[in-house]
Amino acid sequence: MNRLLLLFFCLLTLLPLRADNRNPGDQRTPVTKSEGNWVKPDNDTPIPPNANVITLAEGITYYSADEGIFLNLKEPAGKVKLFSLTGEVVWQGNLVQGRFLIPTRQGIYFLRINNKSYKLIRK
User: Which of 30, 40, 60, 116 is paired with 73 by a 20 to 30 Å CA distance?
Assistant: First the structure.
């Protein structure tokens, strides 16, 4: 009888969580993870004049826009990972030289390129 009550109590405590581990009242849009999937916009598209382009290191710049983070690489970067503030991998892939869009929500992120880490702020 005690085991049955314990099982019933455990089921009741786990029911409010949905399959994506979010509470039913959480209205935030989840950021989807992608492995090696990136969006490379047309390089002829100009950078918006109001964009605050930030230099992370030589040959690595970024700016945030409504769509996410635009990452500019002058040289092939290889393995790239974007982490949330909690340490969760938001995006990862191998990038070559060019400008890339990483779709994200607003917040603070950590970008790891070839074992070097940088802090990004998406406004």
Answer: 30
